[in-house]
Specification:
The complex is a heterodimer of chains A (280) and B (268). With 280 residues, chain A is an all-alpha fold. Chain A has twelve helices and two strands. Helices cover 71% and strands 1% of the residues of chain A. By secondary structure, chain B is an alpha/beta fold. The chains are: A mainly alpha (280), B alpha/beta (268). The structure holds adenosine-5'-diphosphate and magnesium ion. Adenosine-5'-diphosphate binds next to strand 2 and helix 1 of chain B.
């Protein structure tokens, strides 16, 4: 009986954490999609945030209040470094290039001893409480909502609709693309640091191709008319496999079916509502 | 010809402007001069290079050679958004409104270069940001009123008729009060009544101090409206001067109406 209770608590705790982290990752996907970029580097950014934060905690002994903001540094640096060359690409080429970069990073985690290789890094103190995770998620939602209702939000939507017309009306498309990539890196980096410090273990396979696609599916299912859509999509895709726990093996198949159905029947996502684009 | 007119500082001047594509020269060494004020037309048969010239001027296509000066500065290597910031706005032959956005939001994007609030100002909703946004909304509404779409400000742009989408594009371009407005076939797809209204609108726009350079197929429309005409044929400038002279120019008639009609006119 006690074991059963313990099990329930653990399931519950993990789920609560996953919902928050996946919500953040969905927002990290949202900021690039909302500006019309199919950039799939979110899992890679998350991995950089996770690995760098764990090194700060374990190797350097930094306090978590310092580790959390510092966890954005590596992902942002990576975004700035790859931003220049990759943003010349568009559509599916950009998607492939960014997934490729994620795989390169995965190979590095696997082969560098200081990063634990295939075993990953463990013994991470659980310093990220669910409360903190949800506070970060709420702050991210609020910022994206406020930015969305401003000239920046209009510029992003204009770029998504027609980048050429946006440029002709005065939107610095290159700078905006780099900007949203950096924002995406910040959000995913935070998600990486938070999840690493909520689960005590990280491994290279947490940040490869499969998570990249899963993060994309959060936004596709939820819709990118507002930042709430992707968070809803993440919640559904996080909760559904739990509801059907007995079929855990079929989890990926199930995700795939949900995505195909959503794309076919809900092209604007579960939450088709489009946020207004001006302040007050 | 026009070159004999007294020299004024021109708002836009291209010299030797050329754009090559594989196997053809879409714009071939064009010298185009647009003085400040008034309506100036760019005409020529289909495929003459008018849209390509607009793309070169607005910075969406890079020239193969030649240069472009705008308001006294060399803008040949400037990105399109920088040119918009200098006061250049345009519409497109194939309408490019932001369909999912409301009319007001479309017009607001035309004010993008004038927004200066920082990310911090935006997120903190600082008074300066609120003021700027209020001001921008007021200007965007004025631009919609200019083209007669004020009452539909909250509708989605995609819901508009073809002619109304063209007018919305003009509102978006005019919201930022540009010095030069480039209109690429603004009357295309409009019915006669809409075309008459468009003429009046263009006159109103010129009255606000914006210089208009327009590409148009409807000769009648151009002749009544324009202060000067430049004619392109196969990428080359074949005429530049007052509209009345363009109508009488044998080279223009030949290019425009085809050699057959030109021969018949010459025979009379
Ligand atoms: N991107 C392009 N690639 C190849 N050829 C082009 C391109 N854009 C325009 N052209 C060609 O350049 C010529 C001029 O086109 P355009 O400027 O659209 O003419 P107009 O607007 O006067 O009808 C045409 O022959 C057209 O096919
Ligand atoms: Mg054309």
């Amino acid at each position: 009986m006690e074991a059963w209770l313990d099990d329930l608590f653990w399931t519950y705790q993990n789920l609560v954490v996953s919902l928050g982290i996946n919500g953040l990752l969905a927002l990290s996907m949202y900021v690039v999609l909302a500006a019309g970029q199919l950039s799939l580097g979110q899992a890679a950014f998350m991995g950089l945030g996770a690995y760098s934060s764990v090194l700060m905690t374990l190797a350097w002994g930094w306090p978590f209040w310092l580790v959390l903001p510092a966890s954005c540094v590596a992902p942002v640096a990576f975004a700035l470094a790859v931003g220049g060359p990759t943003l010349r690409l568009s559509g599916v080429y950009l998607a492939i290039a960014t997934i490729g970069m994620g795989e390169v990073l995965r190979a590095i985690y696997l082969n560098v001893d200081a990063l634990g290789g295939a075993l990953g890094l463990s013994g991470i103190p659980e310093q990220a409480s669910p409360l903190l995770i949800y506070a970060v998620l709420a702050a991210a939602l609020a910022v994206l909502w406020l930015v969305g209702r401003s000239g920046l939000g209009r510029a992003m939507e204009a770029m998504r609709e027609d980048a050429t017309a946006a440029e002709a009306t005065g939107v610095d498309v290159r700078r905006m693309r780099l900007g949203v990539l950096v924002a995406s890196a910040v959000l995913a980096g935070l998600a990486g640091a938070l999840s690493a410090h909520a689960t005590d273990f990280i491994g290279p396979n947490d940040y490869g191709f499969e998570p990249a696609v899963t993060i994309l599916s959060f936004a596709l299912l939820g819709g990118v008319g507002s930042p709430f859509g992707p968070v809803l999509g993440a919640s559904v895709l996080t909760l559904l496999p739990e509801v059907f726990r007995d079929f855990a093996n079929l989890r990926l198949v199930f995700n795939g079916i949900v995505i195909v159905l959503a794309v076919l029947f809900l092209p604007r996502g579960l939450l088709a509502w489009r946020m207004p684009r001006r302040a007050a | 010809m026009a070159d004999a007119a007294p020299r004024r500082v021109s708002l836009l001047a291209t010299s030797g402007l050329t754009r090559r594509y594989a196997g053809l020269v879409a714009v071939d060494g064009v010298d185009l001069t647009v003085p400040e004020g008034g309506v100036h037309a760019l005409i020529g048969p289909n495929g003459a290079g008018k849209t390509t010239l607009f793309n070169l001027v607005s910075g969406l296509v890079a020239p193969s050679s030649g240069n472009i000066r705008f308001a006294g500065a060399d803008i040949t290597r400037l990105a399109a958004d920088r040119r918009a910031r200098l006061g250049m706005a345009r519409t497109f032959q194939n309408i490019r409104v932001f369909g999912a956005m409301t009319l007001l939001e479309n017009a607001l994007t035309g004010l993008h270069p004038r927004l200066t609030s920082s990310l911090v100002g935006i997120v903190a909703r600082l008074p300066a940001f609120r003021r700027e946004e209020r001001h921008a909304v007021a200007r965007a509404r004025e631009a919609l009123a200019l083209v007669g779409l004020a009452s539909r400000a909250e509708e989605r742009a995609a819901a508009l008729s073809y002619g109304d989408q063209r007018r919305l594009e003009i509102a978006r371009a005019m919201a930022g009060a540009p010095r030069l407005l480039l209109l690429d076939e603004p009357a295309a797809g409009m019915n006669p009544a809409e075309t008459v209204a468009l003429s009046a609108l263009i006159r109103t726009i010129v009255g606000t101090g914006t210089t208009v350079l327009l590409v148009e197929h409807d000769m009648h429309f151009v002749m009544n409206l324009s202060d000067s005409v430049t004619v392109l044929n196969f990428g080359r400038r074949i005429f530049s001067g007052p509209p009345a002279e363009a109508r009488a120019d044998p080279g223009v008639i030949e290019a425009y109406l085809g050699t057959k009609v030109a021969a018949r006119l010459a025979g009379r």
